[in-house]
Fold Nuclear pore complex protein Nup155.
Amino acid sequence: MNIRTMSSFLAQGGLPPLSHQDILESAGRLVDKHLQDDRNYLDLSEQLKVPIHNQPSVSGLHDFDYPSLPESGIGLECLAEVSNVKRVPLPPELVEQFGMQCNCMMGLFPDIERAWLTIDSDIFVWKYEDGTDLAYFDGLNETILSASLVKPKTGIFQPHIQYLLCLATHVDIVLLGVSFIRPFDGAAADSGSGEMHLLPEALFSIPTDNTYITYIIGSDNGRIFMAGKDGCLYELAYQANDGWFSRKCRKINHSKSSLSFLVPSFLNFSFSEDDSLVQLSLDQSRHILYARSEKGTIQVYDLGHDGTGMSRVAAIPLQQIVHNASHIARTVERSNFKPLVHISALTKSESSNVHLVAITQSGVRLYFTTNPFGNIKSRPCMLTLVHKPTNVHMAYHKKGILMLVSSQTEESDLLWTISGDSFPFHNQLMEANMGIGIDGRTWALGEVQPPAEPRPAILEYFTKADPPVVVSQHCELPRRFVLLTAQGSHILSKLRPVDQLRQLLIDCQGPDSIEVKGFFSLHKIEQACATCLILACSKLAPDESGKLSITFGGSGMSVIPTNIGPTAPGMGQPYFHPALTPGQNIVQDVLFSGKHNGICLYLGRILRLIWESNITTDFPCQTPQGILNYLTSSFTSEELNRVLENVQGLSDFVDFNSRFDTGPSDSMVPSGVPFTPHIMGPIDDQTRKRLQNEAQKIEKISLQHIQELIHRIEEVLGLLKILVDHQFHIIASLLTKDQQNQLRTMTFKQLVISGKEMCGALITCLIKRYLDDNATIDAVNTKLREICPSLYSCDDATCSKFAVVHFYEGIVDLCLTVAHKRDPQKLALHYYRSGEPVEDVSGMSAYMSRMECYNCITDTLQYLLTASVSHPQAPSVPKAPGPPPTPDPSRLSALDAEKYQSDVFRLALKSDDELFHVALYDWMFNSNLTEKLLEKNKNFPSAARILSKLAERHGTDVPLQQRIEYLSRALLCAKSSTTHTSSAVEGEFLHELEEKMEVARLQLQVQKALSRISNNTLQIQEAMNRLDSDLLDLTMLYEEFADRFELSECKLAIVHCAGLYDGALVENLWQNIIDGEIDGTTGMADLVRETNIRNKLVSIGKLYIKTERYYPAAFIIKYLEQRSCEINLSTKWVFEMMLETGLSVGKLLEIYDRMFKSRDPYWQTIQRPLRLLEVLCELLNFVTKNPTIIPSYERRPFTTLCLDCVSSYLVELQAMRSTEHQVRLVSSFKRLQSELERL
């Protein structure tokens, strides 16, 4: 899709017609763009600013090379690089051995998740994760000097031997077999997770010839290299059988072998026992071996293209290294460049040009290369220093993470972790660091080996270093490291950016903290939003992660490139398109938000390894007819499932949040990016607002296109997984030759965007294979409909096949299932309920897609209806002379057609698809079938459901009163149904109808209240029409009608119906009702006014008198008495009204007595302090004149209560200042007292 065209069309007030193909291509280009952005990361040599191999550089001398996050001002003081996972003490059996030891060493076997300890001639191996599975070997007589776990050569040992344990003593070198028992069925035997066994008998044993072996390392192809204290490099070579000139196992000295003539003379130097080799490091990807001597000399050995050769290439003594480094970094003290404590080979996945890093005691890193830059296929020919960045005695370096262990005291170490994960796409090497205290002296440091990573699918990923961790963190586990001390193992986890964000959300209790905002500032909006999506889509963090992406992601904005300043930080690149405005020519760019770009970025990262990969690979197979090339899938079922799970998570997130996207508004401006002349250019506010709204519309449409692409990707991945699970090569062989050739060159991207026909062909071949095997297709049919509904559509051909076998119920099931899959978010229903607005493109598309499915069902019903009323046996003129034609066995009889029609209707009515019922009832209205269906066969359940749906039918052609009549008839049918059957479903449906009727009566009450409003405005007329067009729910009635038009009586009825209670709200509603009635009777005579108010309040009160929560009598009485004083009404009418409403006289007396004794200053304020006593006097006088209102059994205690009250009132009155009013009240209460005593 060309966004220029789209924007221009938007400016004219419409949207261009886009095909589904255009939508997928538009979204696909966004994925391509962000994939390309992710591939633009720099190699380590580029970050180090080394242009070519012979122009070395220096970094790490400035503050910005190691930015301090706490001092950066972005609130990231608590952003951790590593976290302590756990500490595991040494197995207690080992602790007992330390007292008897003479020589002790410790180390790690990360490949099998084990640690090891040698005590003299014994070796112990255990799991460092939990201290269990302790194994040992005590078959040696000499002290063990070095140990290593290596992989065996293939084809030499029995399959149960997964590793070899190589042990070296003063006397001999021993190879022991290592095997594991599977802990459960299906676990990998070589995973190291099962119980470990050391074979008691050595596989090979050869003498050392008095060579002290200091270090052992093994290659992936089974070679074993050893460093000698005599300065020589050895190899332990072994084979299955003795050869003519070789033994089964032998030791080869590569430093003094005949191969040494390959070393250039100017690089040659003498070896001696005074400079022993202390460390070996192997680059498995390039097949290069590096050696470090005790005095700091680094040697390079080339193992050949396939890792089976050996030649010594170069060596640099420490003196030359220090000299070269000092020449590069002139401001650094020379002592910082020595001694060397560690070397680490950098594989192809870490850097294309930098091959080795050496670390000094002061923590300085020295980077080396063995090839001229860019010459990735040649063999090593040199060792050249290319870069240089408190008491370090151990180090570890791999994939951009450096760990340094420095001595603090004799009893403790400090572990420094240095990593550039927080600065992934910077054009220079920037790193964060963190120190952690370690109890005890560190004996070994290593990395826990992660599970096997998915293989790369694009050639580029073989020739270029791996991308930053931020690109692959969604599919990789956090890296874990283990330190071994005399106290036990310390296991630490390197936090990925997604782990850091998750921890910030938990620690800071939500997304509104300064720390979380600081994370967005550090990583920029796009990257941070993509990281948020990992959490939101995988449910690894609180629900705030999804909201965080939307909140901080902002929205699309408009910029004017003719007068533009710096781009808003982290907002992505502008998307250019022109939009002409009336009276001026303004060229507008659309700057997509971080939310939009974050979704594209995350989607691209999920698909990174498959997006541009070919779907198939050729697999040659020998057959009797010769070699046959089968098309096999390039991806395994596990790989497809892994990607599919991530895509489904993103799809669910996008679908869920798209329901709450209400479109552009003034409040959607990205936070922190104000509209300034730098951003928007010199234009007026109206134009700026229009362009901004237009930009947000464009972004919304783009997000809808991305959503469509995600759905298609989800379906294609699901289809490919089904095909792989059903032997892809056999299914592909059923394609035509042209289709096979097309599939052979097709990438996953092409299959998604333009491969719908190919997907259909593959589905056809899958079904054909089932049919050829005479197998039922029900299961795979259901699976395909569930997984890929848009690819396996319910078109006329499919429905026709069902119709041929009279499987009409299958047509209903298939069409409804596909309709749901095409529109899982129910956009079509929203579109329908909103009045089918023209601007809702996605809703209209979903509506049309659903109607296409529904038409298949109604067409089937029409066919059955026609067949059920036809009479083929009726006399007719023959079409041709001769005997009558043979009856068509596939033709339905009228009786069968009627039965099938009834079955289809029954199944259709069970559907909960509201929009389908709309389509069904529209068809029924047009076919004049409604009354017939209701009267037919006394099918009360079906009749009730149809009447219910008729009541809910959208449109103003059925007024509200008619809808209530439909519901009333539905209730009768439902009750008739429950008298014949006792189904729980029917009972539940009856209850649902009763609730609908109750709400519908409220809706009628609202409508009548609106009709009584004198100023009949256009808004009121629209509301009246709306109330006629649908049955609404309580929430909508309250918010959009009762509350909007201040219908207090209706609001009270709705609250009561919903069972919601808010005391303050109920009192406020009653106050508004009373005020409304009082205001409505203004100008009437007092007696008439009292009567009108009284009649209205009594009618309302009788509805709620039995539910005290919704009839706060005390509040109502108090408020009525106050208003009566204001408008000078009588003292009798309030309590008389309450008695007529149904409130007992005892309750009335209690309320008035409490009101009087509360001493409310209100009565003093209005200068009516005796008002309540006047009312009480009138109330008691009414009781004495009408004693029958009190039940006879309550009369005596009530009389006693009244006498007590009168006595207290007299005391109060006599304590007051004597006035005429006071004297009259005292006289009245005394008279009452005597009458009560007689009563």
About this structure: Residues 685-725 form the longest helix (41 residues).
